[in-house]
Structure formats: structure tokens, C-alpha cells
Design a protein that fits this description.
about 375 residues; mainly alpha; 14 helices; about 0% strand; globular
């Protein structure tokens, strides 16, 4: 089950959702898309993700096996359709639909694995890294030979191939309420509220880096650098969930979350300080090695709290941050992405402080969640 769910996340998140990142520089060169238009298109995708998360939070019954398969098909069709439109508005609508599908698939896979005894969330969430690496490799190998339109069709084929094993999943929705009848304590409620704020900052900060790192790295004359950086992000994300699980077992999950946030803050700051390709690679390693780790750690912490439907609620908050992120930096985008990375670093630094607060709240109460 963990492998099948991981395949679903590889398809929906790693490729279906994030393939726009390595294709964006190609569309800027060949399709007349400006960096600011790229931010708008990316925002539409994140808005769709948010809408999907909110919908499934309000209507968890829609998170079923049948709807999961329908959204998988919608995702593939939305990618194919990108090859047959040529306006920012049309691209945005299709990416909005892809965002809806991505949220539905993510929550279906995450909630199903969470309910299955003996399943490994590390394997499941590691699928995102595998998908990102696949999308980067596809772009690196095929871009010199295919048009941007053909790249979208190839991406759709890759998505369909990756998501096929996940279609065997028997999807389970999250419970509306906690199984703990006593409900959360005052301290647990405070931890939950701070976690929501921290995860919002993560959604806002990480998406800026994830959207523009490849374009920034590839803007120095070598078209292979951008996709190569994205491959590094994916390969770094692939084992990251296992590594952060091990760190959490050793130092406790709250401290692990704070450490991951600090490292991701540095990953955002590096490309703001230097446009060197080696610096971009180091940033990619740190970024890829932390963003899915933060997701896994946050969802794991929330699941241990006596609160219902934490994954859907956190995903919705994360989605709000993702929508806000590109909109915040879009007006400042020109020929340089420096301002965008500075904004991301500041936001993630605030998230780091929040993660430290959560760790302190936990450490001062031995009866709190672990």
C-alpha cells in the first residue's frame, strides 16, 4: 500500500503539479510567457490545490476510491490540454484544474496510508521526490528535441504511467472528529494553532523557492542547468522523509521540525546571495532535503493531537500560503529573482521561530504529544 500511495504522490505532486517548474523557463523562451505571467499561472495551480483541500475538508465523503480515480484522469487530461492553448488565462485555468486534482490525490493517498497499520509514510511521501526527479529528468533529456507543447504531452504520459499502481488503492477518508473523547488540552490546542501558522509559512516560503529556483538557475546561458537543479531537488527529497523520521526518533519530532525549517531558510537565502550554479545545486540539495520532511513531520505531529481531520485542515492552510507566495513576489519579478528568494528566506525564518515555539511548548509539558 505504501508503494502504491507513493506512486500516486509521484504522479500527482512530483510530476502533475511540479512539472511546470522545469518547463517554465522553456515556455518563457518559446511561448511568450513572462516571469510575472509564470507566477500568475503557478498561482492558479496553487489556488486549485487550495480549493481542493477546502472542498475535502468540508466534504470528506468526497475522498473516495471512485473520486480518486476520476481526479487522476482529470490530472492527466489537464496536462495534455496545456499543449493546445496559448494564453495566460487558458494556462491558468488548466493549472487550476490540475491543482484541484493534486489536492484530491494527495489527501486520498495520505489519509489512506495514515489509517493502515504497518504502512510506511516515509515510502509514501518519498514518492514526491521520485516524481520531481522524473519530471526534471524528462525535461533535461527531452527539451533539446521536443517543443514545449510536446513536453506537456510527454509529462501527461509520465503522470499516467506513475499513477497506475495507485489506482488499486481502496481510499479511506479522514475522520471528522478525534477518537479521543476528552478533546485537546489547552496546551495541545495552542500547539495546534501554532502548527497551523508554521505550516502556512512553509506553504508561502517553500513555494517561492520551488517555483523560481529552476528559472533562476537556468537564466545564465546553459539550458541544462535548470532541469539538472530540479533533478537534484527530487533526488534529495527521495530519501529525505526516511532521514527526518530517523532524526525525529532520535531528537523528538518537534526539534526535528525546527531543524528542517532552519535548513530550508538557508536554502532560500543562498540563491539570493549568489547566482553561481554550484550555489544553486547546494540550495537544491537543502531545499529538496527539507520540504517533504517538513510536511511529514507536521502531519505526523498533528495526527498525534486529539483533533479531527488534521491533514485536510493543514493542507488547506498550506494551500493558502502557496497562493499568497507567488502573488507577493510577482510585482517584484524582473530579470532577477533575488527579491523573491529574500522574501522566501524571511518567511521561512518566521516559520523557524514558530517551530521553535512549538518545540518549547512540547518540552515544557511531559504529558503533551510526542
Amino acid at each position: 500500500m505504501s508503494v502504491a500511495a507513493g506512486a500516486g504522490l509521484a504522479a500527482a505532486m512530483g510530476v502533475g503539479r511540479f512539472v511546470f517548474t522545469p518547463i517554465l523557463p522553456i515556455m518563457v523562451d518559446s511561448a511568450g510567457i513572462s516571469p510575472s505571467s509564470g507566477a500568475i499561472i503557478a498561482t492558479a495551480n496553487y489556488a486549485g490545490y487550495l480549493l481542493g483541500a477546502v472542498l475535502l475538508t468540508l466534504r470528506p465523503g468526497l475522498n473516495s476510491t471512485t473520486t480518486f480515480r476520476l481526479w487522476a484522469a482529470v490530472l492527466v487530461v489537464s496536462e495534455v490540454s496545456m499543449a493546445f492553448v496559448d494564453s495566460t488565462f487558458a494556462f491558468s485555468i488548466l493549472r487550476l484544474i490540475a491543482g484541484l486534482a493534486s489536492a484530491a490525490v494527495f489527501l486520498a493517498c495520505a489519509s489512506t496510508v495514515a489509517r493502515q497499520i504497518g504502512s510506511s509514510p516515509g515510502i509514501t511521501f518519498g514518492g514526491v521526490g521520485a516524481g520531481i526527479a522524473s519530471s526534471g529528468l524528462l525535461t533535461l533529456v527531452a527539451a533539446p528535441h521536443l517543443s514545449w507543447e510536446a513536453l506537456w504531452i510527454a509529462s501527461a504520459i509520465l503522470t499516467a504511467a506513475l499513477i497506475a499502481p495507485a489506482l488499486t488503492l481502496n481510499v479511506h477518508a479522514e475522520s471528522r472528529v478525534s477518537s479521543n473523547e476528552a478533546g485537546p488540552s489547552t496546551r495541545e490546542s495552542l500547539i495546534w494553532r501554532v502548527l497551523l501558522g508554521v505550516y502556512f509559512m512553509e506553504g508561502l516560503g517553500y513555494i517561492i523557492v520551488g517555483t523560481f529556483l529552476v528559472a533562476a538557475a537556468g537564466g545564465h546561458g546553459d539550458s541544462s542547468i535548470g532541469p539538472a537543479v530540479w533533478i537534484v531537488v527530487g533526488l534529495s527529497a527521495l530519501p529525505a522523509t526516511f532521514l527526518w523520521q530517523a532524526v525525529a526518533r532520535r531528537v523528538q519530532v518537534y526539534r526535528a521540525l525546527a531543524a528542517a525549517f532552519v535548513l530550508q531558510t538557508v536554502s532560500a537565502l543562498l540563491p539570493a546571495l549568489s547566482g553561481n550554479s554550484a550555489v544553486a545545486i547546494v540550495s537544491a540539495i537543502m531545499f529538496g532535503g527539507t520540504f517533504m520532511g517538513i510536511t511529514l513531520l507536521t502531519l505526523s505531529m498533528a495526527a498525534s493531537l486529539p483533533i479531527g481531520r488534521t491533514a485536510a485542515t493543514l493542507t488547506a492552510v498550506y494551500g493558502v500560503g502557496q497562493v499568497v507566495g507567488p502573488l507577493v513576489v510577482a510585482p517584484a519579478l524582473g530579470d532577477s529573482y533575488t527579491v523573491a528568494f529574500i522574501v522566501a528566506a524571511v518567511v521561512l525564518a518566521i516559520g523557524s521561530v514558530g517551530a521553535v515555539v512549538v518545540a518549547r511548548l512540547h518540552s515544557t509539558d511531559p504529558t503533551s504529544v510526542r
